[in-house]
Amino acid sequence: MSHVRFVVALTGVAVLLLGACGEDGSNSASPSSSDTTTSSQGAVPTAEELAAALVTEDDYDGQWTVNVPPDSQMATPGVVPESQQEMLPRIEFCAKASDESHSAAEALRWQAFRQLDQSEENPIDMAGGDRVGHLIFVQEFLLSGDPAEIESTFNALRDGMRACQGKIPAGEEGPGKSEPVAISDVGDDRYGELTTLEEADGRAYWLLYNSLVRQGPVLMELQVVDIVMGEGVQPEFTTEDVDRFLTTAVEHLP
Asked: What are the boundaries of the region Disordered (predicted)?
């Protein structure tokens, strides 16, 4: 049973694992207070309008750069062409997720995407290979469609995330765990979780904050990733810091 939910192909840092299949499949998290909120109405944004709403390097405190792969074919910055869909992370839920959740994940075709990298010295490139410090990046994914269909997709993805929460047994990486986290009351529906995953050699661990938000005809996935390397190195962000990343991104949505 695979514990991998996301595999990032766009970052040159490393293969990124997000999410987990928990040993107990726990879904004890309390539902969002607006899980039954009726979809907002309005025109469905185009891919270009979604791309224009993506966060930029100027939206967050600190020094950030846009990660643009050398073979990128994006004619419009942020718009994902069909030829690059396979380069984006794919959701792969664990076996305990429902068929509906698996189907929703397989059908996802993000229309807009951006990765922001924090511009600090890369611990992997440090002389001597000590690997002490952080690798930090933010990824935003957007798609739009009929509000009722977007709501159905959100519900299926959220339910899949809940089903796959819990402890992550050690495999190629790990051990780790995936657990719900509280996020601000944004959009029509929202759900947040944190996956913590150790690297196999025990010299680093990954903090993977994953937020899913539905706002009318728009679905957004926001990943805030902090790879913490070296003994005694502390996480760069609190959950409150990560929540500010999220609220800023939602404020930009069309």
From this structure: 24-45
